[in-house]
Amino acid sequence: MTNIKTSRFDVAEYLTDETLINAYLNEALSDGAPSDFIQALNDVARAKGMNELAAKTGIRRESLYKTLQSEKPRFDTMLKIIDGMGLQVTLTPKAEPFIEA
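The structure corresponding to this sequence follows.
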């Protein structure tokens, strides 16, 4: 019988360039629940480095970890984190336009 070794998969190890990071975050935002997007932000923060993000946002590293593991983080804090990652939030119309009743 062969021994099979497994290791824990960590997506943060593969988020190596901005194009991939943007695609990952957009996919998490468009297809997932809010908790999926928060987890994706956590993955990107770890990939970029929590210390660097803490310095850019002015948010303590411990608070970043806590925020990115929270079910309902504050919106203004999320915007600071996104800005600290060098990203911005933009809204675009869905494929089907909103129709008022």
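The chain is about 55% helix and 0% strand.
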